[in-house]
Amino acid sequence: MNWIRLTGLILWLSGSVLAQEGFPLIGKIKPRNANEIEASNWLIGCETLDRDFTDYDEYKSYLNPLGIKRLRMQAGWAKTEKVKGQYDWAWLDHIVDDANARGLEPWLQFSYGNSIYEGGGGINLAAGVPHSEEALEAWDRWVEALVMRYKDKVINWEIWNEPNFGDNLENTAEKAAALNSRTIKIVKRIQPESIVSGLAFGHIDLEYADRFFMALDQAGTLSLFDNMTYHDYVYNPDEHYPKVMRLKDILEKYNTVIKLRQGENGAPSSGGFGRGAIGDYDWTELSQAKWNTRRMLGDLGHDVESSVFSIIDMAYTAGPIKRLNVKGLIMSDSTKKAIRPKMAYYAVQHVAAIFDNSLERIVNIKQTHNRNYVPESKLDIAVTKGTDRSFAIYGYRHVDSDLQLYTIWNSDQIPNNSMEKRELDFSFANGHFLDPVYVDIISGDVHEIPKENWSREGEKFVFKNIPVFDGPILIADKSLIPIMQN
Asked: What is the pTM assigned to this prediction?
């Protein structure tokens, strides 16, 4: 039996077990096309097209069905200007025009450098930024030409990529800030309504961030930015939020309006040294799906926009990554062919189908993240059956109906390769459900919660024997879940 068949069997058995335990299967989460969704928290990575590590035409038909509108891409100075002063836009025109025709929104990144200019910076991950006078003047001309060409087709931009990648000591915070500062002044002059992202951290370095923000503030350009992006690859996707919140605090020392955006994160579907960040672990398609959805919903629970890296596996031929980078939602190979969607593609599709701008986070709840939690306020959530595990729990309400949805998963470990669940009891004070259902984000199964498993005491809802594991499950009002009936 091959892996994809085995995966399907695992998920089918998971749904069957729940049904046998008295949670009747209603149906599956119904995917939504990106064009059916007005707006959401999500972005999808379409990186490395500038270096030909992927082929847009191989995966473009998978984009709309995924349900995510915004596409992160490098604009590729070196690919566009191979002869000084001559721009060949054909490759990028094809991609931007096709994405626009599909109703999708490219998020174009100004990167990398260009070696035809002395001091022009590197052209791969871990590259140094342009620094000579000639190269910086050429950079300015390219940025201006790029924005002028696409200002009616692109509104989202990002400046450079991972200036502090790895042990890169060349790109100081001040040097990266100077490039950000000169670039955003050009963008905003041409396209005042543009949405511009700065920083693009390769990993969260709080001291670097402080110097970077201070330099922009002193240059008078910090307030021109709409968000600051970071990439923070960790084995357990839930463990980095204290650092993210410290990054937010540092940013707010200088500006309280600019938001954080998680600009690039994902997990591999198999392990192996040389495959990029967090590759040296025994990953599978199941643990990848859990990681990606925990990161998406953890970001949403912290009011941070979230980008999934990446749409397809990437066949690197240059730079520090030496093997196929298998963080894609679609399986590929060295030929860059789209072979098939992985389990993570469908799991991300499930998140995108449910969590759009019709939901807003319930901000005044105390979430249970550890076993010693004691309820304190009327909006608290409690785990009322003894457990030695920690949880991530976030609540949402529909902006029109006020009906609620809660996300729950075990948060204290790296995602494993099991669908086995443990039964726990939960209570939600000040809840609002008419017809609560149980949803497994990984499998997409939607189950009825039997009457004997839930009760209401005034505004307090109690749910008993709810199966929980290290992938996201939902307790939600049925009206908030798009369902394909069995």
From this structure: 0.94
